[in-house]
Design a protein that fits this description.
two-stranded antiparallel sheet; 463 residues; three-stranded antiparallel sheet; mainly alpha
């Protein structure tokens, strides 16, 4: 019986799309503007269409032995961030911060975009001395593989800027899919019912009146005009007058700090104290509702303090148990009146606290410098040389001991600018007096210049 051999079963046909190009990868030599075969993307949205084609149909073949092998959601997120850059210079640090990814992951996916031909080098990043790192500058390009798969016919093939001249009719579904994926999401439009419900929930009265042809006695500006007095009197309508801004009510800690700051400002010997420390000292009286005048009155009952070394300790000793002794507002009012009529209060009103030692600098070195400056200001100024009467000796010369150090410096500076002063002094006052006044170095220099001038005049120059 002959053996019946069944015909070979055909392999299941997998619908492979015509736009699927497996194994696409651009080598490093073709990732520059001068060597690329792609075209410059006219817009970020058009570039995202090409990126989505790589992401959806995976034509890219990775060259690395490790890292991602194909486009994923991370590559798509990075491409959407790069598409919105005005200058296509995606810094690795910025992408790490924006996308919350690791630096290695960002470098992997940037390399994938370059190897697929979607990013092309304009300038390679470098590190300039003194200026820090400089990120690479790219150009968003669309590879020729995408144009062929999408059925796009472009302009001349020898230029980087090629416009789309046409497309194949059978590729319309693919183009619609890519365009829908690259477009930013639109905001939902409210229906009429949603608008009506939102308006009803916001307020009972509309913010404006629609324009109609007929006239009406109601205002077209809503509640801009004042309502009638009858409505205001009956409570049916609120007054349109703006409310006065209410001051923020202080809590317990805020009242303590406020009282402490006022005491430091008004009491002279407290000006160096810290507000938190004084707030802790006056916490009991502040919680009882004491005012600044009441605290000053209680503190000033005893002898006034003119030299306070520890203001916080002095204040604490004066206020110890005061909130229990003066526990009513009437008692505190009486003690304030008594303090205002007392002699110490009158003396304090006319006293200048800055004259005391409490206003002196805390540093002893600073205090010594301040005292020296005031002492120098109080000394009479030294009269000028023209105003002073200088004594003349038997030899007819002015004694150099009468000149101040500044006057000698000025005379030597003038002689350095004009050597004729030194020569005139040598002629009239002698060499000894001149050397004491102008220094030996300056006199020797002038004499050497004079000898050199005489040799040049007689026709002989030194070798």
């Amino acid at each position: 019986m002959p053996t019946i051999v069944a015909p070979p079963r055909p392999a299941p046909t997998v619908p492979v799309a015509e736009h699927d190009v497996a194994g696409h990868r651009v080598p490093l030599a073709g990732q520059w503007m001068s060597t690329t075969g792609g075209r410059i993307a006219p817009s970020g949205e058009a570039w995202l269409e090409a990126v989505y084609w790589f992401y959806k149909y995976s034509p890219y073949a990775s060259a690395g032995s490790h890292g991602p092998k194909k486009f994923g959601i991370t590559t798509w997120r990075m491409a959407k961030a790069i598409a919105h850059l005005t200058e296509c210079r995606p810094s690795v640090g910025n992408l790490v911060q924006w996308l919350k990814l690791s630096e290695r992951t960002v470098k992997y996916h940037l390399a994938m975009l370059r190897e697929s031909g979607l990013l092309t080098y304009r300038a390679r990043g470098t590190r300039v001395a003194g200026c820090g790192g400089r990120a690479s500058e790219f150009e968003r390009t669309i590879p020729q593989a995408f144009d062929d798969a999408a059925g796009l016919r472009t302009g001349p093939s020898d230029t980087l800027i090629r416009s789309v001249r046409g497309f194949s009719q059978d590729k319309i579904p693919l183009l619609q899919e890519l365009h829908a994926a690259a477009r930013p999401p639109r905001r939902k439009k409210r229906t009429k019912g949603a608008n009506r419900r939102a308006l009803k929930a916001s307020s009972g009265t509309p913010s404006c009146t629609p324009m109609v042809g007929s006239t009406s006695s109601s205002s077209t500006a809503g509640d801009l005009n004042s309502p009638s007095e009858s409505k205001l009197a009956s409570g049916q309508h609120k007054s349109p007058a703006p409310k006065k801004p209410t001051r923020r009510k202080l809590n317990q800690t805020g009242r303590r700090y406020q009282l402490a700051a006022e005491l430091i400002q008004q009491v002279g010997w407290l000006h160096r104290a810290a507000v938190p420390r004084i707030a802790w000292i006056v916490r009991h009286v502040a919680d009882a509702g004491w005012s600044t005048a009441e605290v000053i009155a209680v503190v000033g009952l005893a002898a006034p303090a003119r030299r306070v070394h520890r203001p916080s300790g002095f204040l604490a000793s004066r206020l110890k148990g005061a909130h229990l002794l003066y526990d009513t507002p009437a008692k505190r009012t009486a003690i304030v009146d008594h303090w205002r009529d007392s002699r110490p209060a009158e003396h304090d009103r006319h006293a200048e606290w800055w004259q005391d030692d409490c206003r002196r600098p805390a540093s002893r070195a600073v205090a010594r410098e301040v005292d020296a400056a005031f002492a120098q200001l109080q000394q009479p100024a030294t009269p000028a040389v023209d105003e002073r009467e200088l004594a003349v000796g038997d030899d007819g010369l002015v004694a150099l001991e009468q000149l101040t150090r500044d006057e000698v410096i000025e005379l030597r500076a003038a002689a350095l600018k004009d050597p004729a002063l030194v020569r005139a002094t040598l002629t009239t006052c002698g060499e000894t007096y001149t050397r004491r006044l102008y220094s030996s170095a300056l006199v020797d220099q002038v004499q050497r210049l004079a000898r050199l001038g005489r040799t040049v005049v007689h026709g002989w120059r030194p070798a």
